[in-house]
Amino acid sequence: MRSLSSQLHLDHSSTDLSILLNCLAVACKDIASRLQQGAMAGVLGSAGEENVQGETQKKLDVIANDILKDYLQDSGVVRALASEEEEDIVECSKLGNYLVSFDPLDGSSNIDINSMVGTIFSIYETTAGGDISSQDFLQPGRNQVAAGYVLYGPSVMLVLTTGNGVKMYTLDQRIGEFMLTQEQVSIAADTKEFAINMSNQRHWAEPMQRYIGDLLAGQDGPRGKNFNMRWVAAMVADVHRILCRGGLFTYPWDQREPEKPGKLRLMYEANPMGMLIEQAGGKAYTDQGPILDIQPSHIHQRVPVILGAANEVDACLGYHLAP
Ligand code: AFP
Predict the structure, then answer these.
(1) Where substrate is bound, by residue (predicted)?
(2) Which of 32, 124, 168, 320 is deepest in the core (most CB within 10 A)?
(3) Domain boundaries in the chain?
(4) Which of 251, 300, 301 most suits a substitution to test ligand 1, by most atoms within 8 Å of the C-beta?
């Protein structure tokens, strides 16, 4: 079985990119070990609360953010980082050639029920030498040189693309290494499974109402087949399921906050997942066009997301184009 470092070497990843990806892997192993200690580590609960010893507890997403920041700042290959937990970008090494955006703990509301969460990351190259600003991060997702996530589930998995397909690695806890367990991940074009937060149904736009209504109508409706539904409430776990066994995931625009185009963040949720899904043969769209073609306007920008099985994404988009 091949380790992450050996595979990056075989993939001809540049030395600096390999250093960066190994550094992310080490940071995520550290996060995984904190998560596994759960309540015993005294880290569950809200930031600002005190534990039984009277020490201030930090929320795990704050801890995960600090861990990633520390490792990336020390790596020497990262110019700057952007995180869901940081208002502005954080400068790292002047000599670094990479920009890293991440969601340190996606699905963090799952922590307190001991359910799946993950770290999502997106990597761009930069030539910005002198000053760096958030403007340097505002590149379309197509420019990503690597993207992936670490899923903290029954096993810890790293799912990665460097632009040449998607590979899955599983953490071998005995030796502390991510080992390659699946290559050439591929999403079937058709599916009978979808993921959406149904409780928001009344707030969706009319095309999404019609599309989901037709899926629910099953074999008696216009789609002529029954669909199953799943919702983990952590994008990282829902996307992992789609990479493993297919399906469609959507977090659509809704009318409650019309000025917000969606819930999910472009730079560290939609773009990295979009790259993984496309690299596995699926599609990743908003209701307007491919996610990876969006010119970002802000590092914390939100977008609607429709991704997964190619034919099912097309079917969903068809409702949005229909008069
Ligand atoms: P948190 O990380 O704040 O828990 O949000 C997770 C998330 O951004 C995404 O991972 C899920 O798909 C989505 O929110 C779940 O949202 P609902 O609360 O509507 O289920």
Answers:
(1) 106-109, 197, 263
(2) 124
(3) 4-182, 193-321
(4) 251
